Write the structure tokens for this entry.
Amino acid sequence: MIPEQPIQQAPRKRHQTGEMMGEAARLDDIATQLMAVQRLWNDPSRELHLTAALEASRNAWHAIQTALAEGMLALPPDVQHNLLILSVYADSKISACESIPSSDTLASLIALTRTLAGSLKEWQVAA
């Protein structure tokens, strides 16, 4: 390496619009899973379904956090910041649902998940 040459970093892959639609669809699926658990709250198998739905939700939100941390989302900085805040809030809701399961807490997580999925779809259309 010659001292005068700048160090070049490998370009990072940024999520394109189609990939954001995939995340929106994934969040829609998770919201549907969570709503099914809420609808059948008194079902004997609720705990099993709730655990699976919350794990899927946590994985999706953590994937978003990872993409943000690695600079892989092609979103404006203020949107990225807001998305990070939402993901941390969602993580706290997931933990709350795990520690003290409640239909109300689950409803809050469902609303947050559906809202973000809708926002991602709107962003894709605008992009």
Summary: The two ends are 41 Å apart (CA to CA). Residues 5-16 have pLDDT under 50 and may be disordered.
